[in-house]
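To fix ideas, we reproduce below one chain and its tokenised fold.
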Amino acid sequence: MSGEGSEPQAIRKLQPGKLVIASHNAGKVREIRALLGPYGVDPISAAELDLPEPEETGTTFVANAELKALQAADLSGLPALADDSGLCVDALDGDPGIFSARWAGEEKDFREAMRRVEDNLAAKGPNVGRDAHFTCALALAWPDGHVEWFEGRVDGTLVWPPRGGKGFGYDPMFVPNGHDRTFGEMEPDEKTPLTHRADAFRQLVAAVF
């Protein structure tokens, strides 16, 4: 959807060339590079440009993605793409949600974050539901302040203990619907098309390329 209206004609097209990926998360950057590969875009990460990480003060995934994309576009003078994503657990009223990274603490210890999710579920009793989904908001910003945003989702269930070491974040405890392995057990080329990020990217690609 467009930051300046949701009518199709309002959507600004992205031209080939450099695009800042407004993230310092190497796993996210890797996935985004792979998804952008076919479209004539030359991705460069915020970390490569030594851009600071803004404080995520938004109350939604979209708001945080827009905040990050706008800052990166302003500081770099280039179009910038930001992702804000997280795990939403039905039985925990959508937590950790926008606080998914913060549950991992300053050390970004997602083993501890997954343990925290499991402990919170266990506290609700043995029959607690384990349905969850990942949400991804993508914001594409230009230096003049124009923003387009897109939101994707993948549904699944949580397992314990975590399985697999190939993903990142909460991947080892999340089994997408229709599959019997966690994202952490899947090779990147199998996992990537199934993700919330890929869902949001399909919308972005249809709109801006």
In short: The chain has five helices and six strands. Confidence is low (pLDDT under 50) at residues 2-8.
